[in-house]
Amino acid sequence: MLAGVMAARKNSAPKLGDVLLVTGSETFLADRAVRSAIAAVSKGTADVEVTDLGGADLDVGVFAELTGPSLFAAERVMVLRTLENLPSEMVPHLLDYAASPSEDVLVILVHSGGQKGKATLDKLRKASVNEVVATAPKTWELPQFVVGEIRLLGGSIDERGAAALVDAVGHDLRALSGACSQLVSDSGGQPINPDLIGQYFGGRAEVTSFAVADAAIAGRTEPALEQLRWALDCGVAAVLVTSATAGGLRGLAKYTSAPTGLREADLAREVGVPPWKLKTLRQQARGWTAGGLATAIKAVAQADADVKGASGDAGYALERMVITVSNAHGRR
After folding, report:
1. Closest Cα to residue 110, out of 69, 82, 88?
2. Could you report the per-residue pLDDT of 223-245, keeping only the tens digit for each?
3. Between β-strands 8-9 and 130-133, what pairing exists: parallel, antiparallel or unpaired?
4. Alpha helices in 58-155 (DSSP H)
5. How would you write 256-299 as a 3-class SS string?
6. Residue 111 contacts by C-beta under 8 Å, 6 or more apart in sequence?
7. Contact 287, 258 (CB under 8 A)
8. Distance of CA 175 to CAs 28, 146, 162, 170, Å?
9. Cβ neighbours of residue 327 under 8 Å, at least 6 residues apart?
10. What CA–CA distance (Å, rounded) separates 241 from 232?
11. What does the alpha-carbon distance between residue 32 and residue 39 come to, in Å, rounded to a whole number?
C-alpha cells in the first residue's frame, strides 16, 4: 500500500458499533474512505439508513436521534463532516458516545485537516477509535497511485505509462481516478500504454507545461518558446509552467548532487523519484553544471513571483524564464 495515498486503517474493516475517524486534507481519499466504510456495512443492500451532516449542524437532540434506538431502521450510518466545526458543547457528548457506541450504528467522523479541532481529535484517538488517514501523495508517488488504481479496476499499466498519464491529466487525484476508469473501460483488456493515453488526454493543459519545461531544460530554446506560446494561447495557467519547470530543475539538482556509487534503488530514494525516472534525469544532466543550474533555478523563482503578481505581463516573464533556462544549459 502506498504511504499517504491509500487510506490506512488501524484495525479491520468498519462494522456496526464502530466509530471511524477520517482525517486529512485530501478530499478524494476522504470521500473514498467514507464510501468504503458505508459499503462494508451495507454489503450491497439498501437496508442501511445513512445520514450525512456537517459538524456545525449537530446538537444534542439530533445526535441522540441519530445514535439512539430506532424503530424504523435496524442498521444506520451517521457521517459527520467538518468535525473541526463541531460546537464545543457537543464534544463531551461525542467523547462519551465514542467510549460506548451503539451496536447498530456506524459513526464516521470526518476532519478536513489543520489545527482547528485538534484537541478533539487527540481525545478521540485516546478513545481508540479506528482512523483512516487521507493524505495527498507526493508528486513523485503519483505514478504509483495510478498503477494501484488501474489494478483495482482490473487493468494493467507499467510505471512509464502511469507517469505519462500523470503528465497528461495532472495531479488531481479525482481526475486521475476518473481517467484510470475510462482507460480500463476502453482498453479491451489490453495493457494501457502511452499511445492510448495520448489518444484520450494528449491535449490536456498540464502536458503542455511539462513540454515547455522539458524543452527549456534540454537547452532547446526555439521549441520551448513555441510550446510556451501554444500553451498560453490554449489558456494554460502561467503558474503551471513555472511549477513544471521548477520541479524539473529541482529533480535535476538533486540528481547531480547525489553521492556517487549508489545503487539504482538507493539513488532513486536519494533523489526522490521512481527508479525509471533516473534514465530521464541522466539524459537531462548532460550539459548542466552547478553554476548553470543555480542560474536557471533563480530565473524560475523570479518568473514564479512575476506571474503571481510582481509583474504585469506574465507572458513576457515566462518567455524570459524559458530563454534564461535554455541558455543556462551548458553554462559553467
Report:
1. 82
2. 899 888 888 877 777 888 898 89
3. antiparallel
4. 60-67, 91-99, 118-126, 142-152
5. HHCCCCCCHHHHHHHHCCCCCHHHHHHHHHCCCCHHHHHHHHHH
6. 21, 22, 23, 24, 82, 83, 84, 117, 121
7. no
8. 10, 11, 14, 8
9. 219, 221
10. 10
11. 10
Q: Whole-angstrom Cα distance, residue 103 to residue 89?
A: 24
E-only strand ranges, 112-178:
130-133
Say if residues 293 and 249 touch (Cβ distance below 8 Å): yes
Q: By C-alpha distance, which of 204, 197, 164 is closest to 182?
A: 197
* 281-311: pLDDT as tens digits: 888 888 899 999 999 999 999 998 998 886 6
Amino acid at 265: A
Confidence of residue 64 (pLDDT cuts 50, 70, 90): very high
CA dist list (Å): 99 to 194, 241, 292? 52, 51, 61
Q: What is the number of residues in the chain?
A: 332
Are residues 141 and 5 in contact, defined by beta-carbon separation less than 8 angstroms?
A: yes
Distance CA 200, CA 170 (A): 14
Question: Do residues 230 and 259 touch, judged by C-beta distance below 8 A?
Answer: no
Closest CA to 98 of 71, 74, 67: 67
Residues 6+ apart with CB under 8 A from 201: 165, 168, 169, 179, 207
49 membership: H or E segment, kind and range: strand 49-54
Query: Distance of CA 83 to CAs 76, 77, 204, 225, 315, Å?
Result: 19, 16, 36, 48, 43
What distance in Å separates the CA atoms of residue 268 and residue 256, rounded to the nearest whole number? 12
In one-letter notation, the amino acid at residue 99 is A
Residue type, 201: F
Q: Are 142 and 171 in contact (CB under 8 A)?
A: yes
Measured CA to CA, the distance from residue 269 to residue 251 in angstroms comes to 12
